[in-house]
Amino acid sequence: MLVSSLLAAASATILNDTSLPPPDPFYAAVYNGTTLPPPEPFEEAMLASLDPLERQLLTSAKGENGVELFEGDIMLSDEQRESRKGASNLWPGSIYYVITSSSSADRNIILSAINHWRSRSCLRFYERPESYNSGPHLRFIRSSGCWSYVGRQERNTGQSISIGQGCNTLGIIAHEIGHAIGFWHEQSRRDRDSYISVLTENILSGKEHNFRVENNENALGVPYDLSSLMHYGGFSFSSNGQPTIVTNDVLLAGKIGQRNGLSHRDRHLANEMYRCSERCVCIPRCRNGGFVDRNCRCICPAGTYGMFCDRRYYSYYGRTCGNQRITRPGVIKSRYFPSLYPPNEHCIWKVTAPTGKRVRIQFHTARVIYRSGVRCPWDWIAVHTNSDSRPDRVACGSELQNTAFTTTGNRLVVEMHSFRERYASLQTGFNATITFV
Ligand SMILES: [Zn+2]
């Protein structure tokens, strides 16, 4: 049975994008058979590689003085606790900071994260000695976990930013500095329901308050950004390994939860909040989502060019791998199948059958890295049989091997996510046959 379906699969039309493997020496070696993949990584090392912000969301993390953190990594001031989220206090343009001796081992990466902000805004940062206590300032400490206050706190002894164990990456430190500068989480914007859906049935009981929207948020005209450094990932506070946040446009599902650095719109928002172009005499009119920076020039989002960002080559989020225009029966496969699939990808296959028909998918091989507890924290495959945006379930390991699904309507969506680190992706991915029934 399996053999015949595999043969059928081999002879059917290949519906994938057929781009060549990247010119990466590791992959070249695998293709040539000159090296074997390293042995299965240890669970502990794998867990350590996860985003500590995400891990923190699975526990009731505590911040300063044992106070429970809000939304996983925010210390609310007494005032903010009363009014829930409100407008945050801004800095006068200069921010003093102290890297305390507890954080001295992380000094270089903290300085890089400060520089990341400095070069992308008009904020000025000045270091002060550890004994400084003459006005509001940031105090980098190594406490448990990663957390920060939101906005400037009026105390001479400063406000702590904890860069705990595992939090010492540029993206996470920049995220925490973002809070201190005045940023809330992106998904608590009032217009978020137009872009994401919160799946309350998958949220840990008692943690629902972490998904509220803000009272007084002001987006200052900057559009919602799924790729914001300040956006939650899809599995925050999940009780069962299923997503708590999905994007309304499934093609953008891979954009949420990035921790690489500030997005274009994060940078835009900071420039608006701190009125970076205030002193410009001649303000250029930037187009296609560009904004004016402190040097009175347009900063253009990826995909646009020209002095005024007036030439646009692709949309803000770029293209999505996979194939989203499948209208015929055939075979779909993860990239480079049966060789190893690449890390750090989120590919989508969308199959549309003629009206009145349903889509059936028969997985043959389906192998990604294993499940850990209730979660698929690294790589996973999800099948949607009755909703473009909501998967039926998120699977990993070889759970989908030789399984089949039939849609309720005429649309099928398959998502495959691979972790950002290559060593998690030492598996072959999947191949599956699509038929219309
Ligand atoms: Zn945060």
Automatic annotation (TrEMBL):
GO biological-process terms attached to the record: proteolysis
Keyword annotations: Disulfide bond, EGF-like domain, Hydrolase, Metal-binding, Metalloprotease, Protease, Zinc
InterPro entries recorded: Astacin-like_dom, CUB_dom, MetalloPept_cat_dom_sf, Peptidase_M12A, Peptidase_Metallo, Sperma_CUB_dom_sf
Highest taxon of source: Eukaryota
Keyword Hydrolase belongs to the record: yes
MF term (GO), any: metalloendopeptidase activity
Co-factor remark: Binds 1 zinc ion per subunit.
Chain sites annotated for binding Zn(2+): H175, H179, H185
CDD domains assigned: CUB, ZnMc_astacin_like
Active site per the UniProt annotation: E176
Protein name: Metalloendopeptidase
SUPFAM superfamilies for this protein: Metalloproteases ('zincins'), catalytic domain, Spermadhesin, CUB domain
Pfam families documented for this protein: Astacin (PF01400), CUB (PF00431)
Cofactor(s) the record lists: Zn(2+)
The organism's taxonomic lineage, starting at the top: Eukaryota, Metazoa, Ecdysozoa, Arthropoda, Crustacea
EC number: 3.4.24.-
All copies of domain CUB, residue ranges: 321-437
Domain Peptidase M12A: 82-277
Annotated source species: Amphibalanus amphitrite
